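Weekend entry, working from home. Most of the wet-lab plans are on hold until the incubator is repaired, so I used the time to fold the two sequences that have been sitting in the queue since the last round of cloning. Logging both here for the record. First:
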Amino acid sequence: MKIIPLIFVLLFSFSEVMAAEGWWSFSNPVPIRDGIAFGDGVMLATGGGVRYRSLDADEVYHSEDGLETSNIYAIVSGGAGVFAISEFGRIAFFVSESNKWMVLNRSYVKNQSRVVPGASVIAEGVMTVSFEDRLSFFDIDKASSIITLDRIGPKSLSVEKISRVAVHGSVRRDCKISP
């Protein structure tokens, strides 16, 4: 007689799991580390992937959507498109035709230095990626690193931490990435 209530409890639990929304069942939407305006909404870098949110849509991109990781620390946009940067510097490009991400560079991951949320920018076809202890310049057209600095003059970036990056001057809008 005790087995029938147990079956009901198991069926109820299973139906709750199957009815859960995809966003909550695959990733954690917090913390939100960075964000940009995109289309009619915003694109957010979160601990659970990249989330696009507008009045009409709520889309979440995970590792299976081409990011290869769900722990995103920065998201930037420029003339070439939208780029997501993972916790340790994996750079992915958003391919709008397929609504997927494509990883462009994994070389920063081996350093095991975390990206500073919100401190990455694009200007003149170059993306500046700020890490806890270094500053890297990434050529968008060639999808490769230009140079990585761990010192600026006598200041060590592991001691004098980067908190913000600003770009001054004109921004070139003609660089393109081909998937």
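Second, folded right after the first finished:
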Amino acid sequence: MVLTDRGNQPQPTRLLWRGNVRTVGPIVQPAIPAVLTAGSCSEEALSSRRHLAAWMTDEDNPLTWRVMANRLWHYHFGAGLVGTPNDFGFSGGRPTHPELLDWLAAELVVSGWSMKHIHRLIVSSSTYRQSSRDRPECSR
């Protein structure tokens, strides 16, 4: 099946039952899940994907920055500061070190979203450079 663009005017968005383009349901209005907005999303952000993307990556929206910082930490250490990297919602885990997570997220903002900067910070840290070998004097 081929889907085509029908011009510059947005077409009504319809619910697709079970994600199937052949089982078209009722027209739905654009919206963001309430768990993501917490009342902070403007009506403009609901109007298009571009506005939604701009809202999600805005410096005033800490969720995006915290999720990315957690994923970078997870990449290097094998476990994130939040144990549920795919769920930062109400049912997700709590950060083990919230101040560190917030600091890394702030560094992302200050550095202009530079992943290289965060990678460099992590790999040059004393935490990252510690040995993972078992030491008998520390085992009990």
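Plan for Monday: verify the second prediction. The chain has a mean pLDDT of 82.
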